[in-house]
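Both lines are given unchanged directly below:

***
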Amino acid sequence: MSSVTVTSRGALRKSDLREANERLLLNIIRQNAGISPSDMARMTGFSPSSIKLIVDRMRKRGLLAIGTRNGDAPMGRRPLALELCPDAMVAVGIEVALPLTRIATADLNGKILRQKTITWHKNPEIVLGRIRDAMDSMAGALTRKQSLLGAGVSIPGTVDRSNGIVVAAENLGWVDVPAGAILTRGLSTPVYFENNAIASALAERWFHEPGTQPLDNFVFLTSHDGLGTGVIAGGKPLLGAYGEGCEFGHVTMVPEGRACLCGNAGCWEQYASDFALVRMYRERGGKAELTALDVVDRARSGDPAAQQALLEAARYTGYGIVNLNAVLNPEAIVIDGYLSAGWDLIEETVMKVLRRHLAPRCMARIRFKLARHGSDASLAGTLALVLSRFFTQFHSQAQ
């Protein structure tokens, strides 16, 4: 999160203070569409004259529209209603994945405006160049009244957030790839990088269901492009001292087990991920070239090999969740990918493992949620990376 510029005495510069107040009001309006200036004053403690000054300034910049509310005042003038102009600013989101990378632009509410797909190439310079060209094209399609906030990028692996170097994305075949330098070449807009599981968790929190409080302590368990865990603790991503923490997909599940691309053996990813499910299906006689979602569909249709593979992956999923609960004590586990698509088929198997290994008090608290954005979770997370920085740049947490 960006820090506020301070003077030598530690006070906010006037321009920073003004921008901080604007972002605060914009975020409140984003969360409370149609709020009146008087309600805004009560909520923030700002004076009505200060609210008017800030609102007028943001209207001139094309960020706000003002209407009137119905039903609030049976007599006299109806109160004003403040609305965000969501298409005034645009965010770019990039989900780097196999076999297709997706790029999208979205408005301030996260609504997708345009979307493109990029075909994969084993040479990272080539595929990243294609992504950069697509970014240029989409940025060039903006109108004169629109401004580009920045771009968010999700990577299924370990990435240095300060410079965009992909330290290790084994399933992509990338090690020490300077993705940041390649993508930002010739660009002036900021680009933010994040692991795909953490990006998915950010999407779950930022784009939470209207009228509900966002989850503060949860694990996003993604089974897409491997097995990843995005951990939110106290409302913020839990990253560890060097930004590589909470890689539960690479904890040892089976000592001396299957070799993993990370260099370890017996990783949880080798027994509960999407590609692990496909491998288990083939080991049971499945011949077709399928995805994990295809295996779920076959299991649902009665294919014995698919059913057996799915239940084995479900058991290992349960074992891993036992460890997640012991270490993190989350309020919820959010799942996507084949786990979400086949949850009705595997839930009892997962819960059976949990009942065997967890204390009754833990079982009473554990809660599962299907990912709000489904297969679009990490793409939505790339947009949340940009939007959360814009709306909450001067605040401690994204709400």
